[in-house]
Give the backbone structure.
Amino acid sequence: LKPPTTPAPGDGMCQRFAIPYGKYCYYVYSGEVGFSWPDSEHYCQAGRMELVSIHSRAEVEFLKSFNYSKNMNLWIGLTRDNNFGWAWTDETSVSFLNWAPNEPNSAFHPGNMAENCVEMYKDGRWNDNNCMEKKSFPLFKSCNYTETTNLKSETSKTQWHIWH
Protein backbone atom coordinates (compact mmCIF):
# COMPACT_ATOMS: atom_id res chain seq x y z
CA LEU A 1 0.00 0.00 0.00
CA LYS A 2 1.20 3.47 -0.83
CA PRO A 3 -0.06 6.50 1.10
CA PRO A 4 -1.49 9.39 -0.89
CA THR A 5 0.91 12.16 -1.77
CA THR A 6 0.51 15.59 -0.26
CA PRO A 7 -0.34 18.58 -2.44
CA ALA A 8 2.47 20.75 -3.76
CA PRO A 9 3.29 23.82 -1.65
CA GLY A 10 1.04 26.72 -2.51
CA ASP A 11 -1.72 24.86 -4.32
CA GLY A 12 -4.09 25.26 -1.35
CA MET A 13 -6.04 22.12 -2.02
CA CYS A 14 -6.62 19.06 0.09
CA GLN A 15 -5.81 15.70 -1.42
CA ARG A 16 -8.48 13.78 -3.25
CA PHE A 17 -10.90 12.22 -0.75
CA ALA A 18 -9.64 14.49 2.04
CA ILE A 19 -11.99 16.85 3.84
CA PRO A 20 -10.87 20.37 4.86
CA TYR A 21 -11.70 21.53 8.38
CA GLY A 22 -10.11 24.48 10.12
CA LYS A 23 -6.50 24.71 8.99
CA TYR A 24 -6.16 21.03 8.10
CA CYS A 25 -7.12 18.37 5.60
CA TYR A 26 -8.48 15.14 7.05
CA TYR A 27 -8.41 11.71 5.46
CA VAL A 28 -9.74 8.35 6.63
CA TYR A 29 -7.85 5.27 5.49
CA SER A 30 -10.61 2.89 4.47
CA GLY A 31 -8.69 -0.05 3.08
CA GLU A 32 -9.55 -3.62 3.87
CA VAL A 33 -6.27 -4.26 5.68
CA GLY A 34 -6.14 -3.08 9.29
CA PHE A 35 -3.03 -1.48 10.76
CA SER A 36 -1.49 -1.55 14.22
CA TRP A 37 -0.97 1.87 15.80
CA PRO A 38 2.79 1.93 14.95
CA ASP A 39 2.05 0.85 11.36
CA SER A 40 -0.67 3.51 11.11
CA GLU A 41 1.77 6.16 12.29
CA HIS A 42 4.41 4.96 9.80
CA TYR A 43 1.84 4.98 6.96
CA CYS A 44 0.91 8.57 7.81
CA GLN A 45 4.48 9.78 8.09
CA ALA A 46 5.41 8.12 4.78
CA GLY A 47 2.79 10.41 3.21
CA ARG A 48 4.05 13.42 5.24
CA MET A 49 0.95 13.35 7.42
CA GLU A 50 0.20 12.69 11.10
CA LEU A 51 -2.31 10.63 12.97
CA VAL A 52 -5.01 13.08 14.00
CA SER A 53 -4.68 15.19 17.14
CA ILE A 54 -7.94 16.43 18.66
CA HIS A 55 -8.20 19.65 20.65
CA SER A 56 -11.92 20.38 21.01
CA ARG A 57 -15.41 18.93 21.21
CA ALA A 58 -16.11 20.49 17.78
CA GLU A 59 -13.26 18.44 16.27
CA VAL A 60 -14.67 15.26 17.82
CA GLU A 61 -18.08 16.02 16.28
CA PHE A 62 -16.47 16.73 12.91
CA LEU A 63 -14.55 13.44 12.99
CA LYS A 64 -17.67 11.51 13.98
CA SER A 65 -19.32 12.78 10.79
CA PHE A 66 -16.85 10.96 8.54
CA ASN A 67 -18.29 8.20 6.41
CA TYR A 68 -16.43 5.25 7.89
CA SER A 69 -17.72 1.88 9.02
CA LYS A 70 -19.72 2.59 12.16
CA ASN A 71 -18.61 -0.70 13.76
CA MET A 72 -14.91 0.20 13.61
CA ASN A 73 -12.84 2.27 15.99
CA LEU A 74 -10.16 4.64 14.73
CA TRP A 75 -6.59 5.08 15.89
CA ILE A 76 -5.79 8.68 16.85
CA GLY A 77 -2.38 10.25 17.44
CA LEU A 78 -2.47 10.09 21.25
CA THR A 79 0.04 7.75 22.91
CA ARG A 80 1.77 7.33 26.26
CA ASP A 81 4.80 9.50 26.83
CA ASN A 82 7.91 8.57 28.84
CA ASN A 83 6.32 9.85 32.07
CA PHE A 84 3.26 7.59 31.73
CA GLY A 85 1.21 10.58 30.66
CA TRP A 86 -0.22 11.23 27.19
CA ALA A 87 1.25 13.03 24.17
CA TRP A 88 0.15 13.80 20.61
CA THR A 89 2.40 12.55 17.81
CA ASP A 90 2.34 16.01 16.19
CA GLU A 91 3.74 17.43 19.46
CA THR A 92 0.80 19.77 20.04
CA SER A 93 -0.29 20.24 23.65
CA VAL A 94 -2.75 17.84 25.24
CA SER A 95 -5.37 20.47 26.07
CA PHE A 96 -8.50 18.36 25.54
CA LEU A 97 -9.34 14.76 26.51
CA ASN A 98 -12.47 12.79 25.70
CA TRP A 99 -12.12 9.47 27.54
CA ALA A 100 -14.95 6.95 27.66
CA PRO A 101 -16.17 6.09 31.18
CA ASN A 102 -13.51 4.22 33.21
CA GLU A 103 -10.81 5.05 30.66
CA PRO A 104 -7.91 5.13 30.43
CA ASN A 105 -7.73 1.88 32.37
CA SER A 106 -4.21 0.73 31.44
CA ALA A 107 -5.40 -2.85 31.06
CA PHE A 108 -2.94 -5.55 30.05
CA HIS A 109 -3.50 -7.99 27.21
CA PRO A 110 -2.13 -11.54 26.78
CA GLY A 111 1.65 -11.40 26.51
CA ASN A 112 1.78 -8.37 28.85
CA MET A 113 0.89 -5.95 26.07
CA ALA A 114 0.01 -2.64 27.73
CA GLU A 115 -2.61 -0.20 26.45
CA ASN A 116 -0.32 2.62 25.36
CA CYS A 117 -2.18 3.84 22.26
CA VAL A 118 -5.57 5.50 21.89
CA GLU A 119 -8.53 4.72 19.66
CA MET A 120 -11.71 6.73 19.13
CA TYR A 121 -15.02 4.89 19.45
CA LYS A 122 -17.81 5.58 16.97
CA ASP A 123 -19.47 7.81 19.62
CA GLY A 124 -16.32 9.98 19.72
CA ARG A 125 -15.07 8.85 23.13
CA TRP A 126 -11.56 7.53 23.59
CA ASN A 127 -10.11 4.26 24.87
CA ASP A 128 -6.54 3.26 25.58
CA ASN A 129 -5.78 0.02 23.75
CA ASN A 130 -3.03 -2.42 22.84
CA CYS A 131 -0.98 -0.73 20.11
CA MET A 132 -0.72 -3.95 18.12
CA GLU A 133 -4.49 -4.28 17.62
CA LYS A 134 -5.40 -3.98 13.95
CA LYS A 135 -7.75 -1.14 13.10
CA SER A 136 -9.20 -0.96 9.62
CA PHE A 137 -9.60 2.80 9.61
CA PRO A 138 -6.70 4.82 10.96
CA LEU A 139 -7.42 8.52 10.78
CA PHE A 140 -4.97 11.24 9.89
CA LYS A 141 -4.57 14.93 9.43
CA SER A 142 -2.48 16.22 6.58
CA CYS A 143 -1.07 19.61 5.66
CA ASN A 144 -2.48 22.69 7.28
CA TYR A 145 -3.23 25.72 5.20
CA THR A 146 -3.89 29.38 5.85
CA GLU A 147 -5.57 32.12 3.90
CA THR A 148 -3.53 35.22 3.09
CA THR A 149 -4.52 38.32 1.18
CA ASN A 150 -2.45 39.70 -1.67
CA LEU A 151 -2.57 43.51 -1.47
CA LYS A 152 -0.48 44.25 -4.59
CA SER A 153 -3.49 45.06 -6.71
CA GLU A 154 -6.61 47.12 -6.15
CA THR A 155 -8.68 43.98 -5.96
CA SER A 156 -8.00 41.62 -3.15
CA LYS A 157 -6.92 38.15 -4.23
CA THR A 158 -6.98 35.13 -1.98
CA GLN A 159 -3.89 32.96 -2.07
CA TRP A 160 -3.64 29.60 -0.33
CA HIS A 161 -0.41 28.29 1.09
CA ILE A 162 0.28 24.76 2.25
CA TRP A 163 2.53 24.24 5.25
CA HIS A 164 4.19 20.87 5.67
Observations:
- The radius of gyration is 17 Å.
- The chain has a mean pLDDT of 74.
- The helical segments are 37-46, 57-64.
- The chain is about 10% helix and 30% strand.
